[in-house]
Design brief:
The chain has one helix and eleven strands; from the N terminus they run E-E-E-E-E-E-H-E-E-E-E-E. The chain has 170 residues and is mainly beta. Strand 4 and strand 5 form a beta hairpin. The N and C termini lie close together (10 Å). 18% of the residues are buried.
């Protein structure tokens, strides 16, 4: 059963770190999640709504949202040793195989909703992670943009030592 309130306390602002994005970096059937956002000061899941506005003959305006096309930019996304995601993306860039960019599973954990050990989460299959540039000044940056697929499985996630375990809802 979904929560009926946020778990941060009445009037308390939810810290940004409680909205977590993980990308599956495994080459097997077993998920291996890597969190994204290290070194990024600001990143939002932009919903990019498709809206339709109609004004009727009485002058009343009605707007409806027909779909969302969510995406999330992570900039600078600095290249660091140990990042399997960045290494995979670099290989895709080097091999000039952009068709592989649309095969990522992404887990969004809403740690501000749920209990202290189990939070609301959603798994999105076959998301696209695009490299928007490569370079920088002092370090090699590889900003990315995640385009979410909306192929969603809702569930919960527990996090132990920074590693999530996703359980689909029944």
């Amino acid at each position: 059963m979904p929560s009926s309130d946020f778990n941060v306390g009445s009037g308390v602002k939810a810290e940004r770190k409680l909205l977590m994005t993980f990308v599956n970096v495994s080459d097997s059937e077993t998920y291996e999640w890597e969190i994204v956002g290290s070194g990024v000061e600001d990143s939002s899941i932009e919903l990019n709504p498709n809206t339709e506005t109609v004004t009727d003959i009485l002058g009343i305006t009605n707007t409806s949202v027909t779909k969302w096309e969510p995406n999330q930019s992570l900039d600078p996304n600095t290249v660091k040793g140990g990042s399997k995601l960045n290494f995979k993306l670099h290989q895709i860039w080097q091999d000039k195989t952009p068709e592989l960019l649309s095969q990522f599973d992404v887990l969004i954990v809403y740690a501000y909703i749920g209990e202290s050990s189990s939070f609301e989460a959603e798994l999105q299959k076959n998301c696209t992670i695009n490299i928007t540039s490569i370079g920088g000044s002092a370090y090699v940056d590889m900003p990315i943009e995640i385009s979410y697929s909306n192929d969603i499985t809702k569930g919960t996630a527990t996090i132990s030592k920074g590693v999530p375990t996703f359980t689909p809802a029944e």
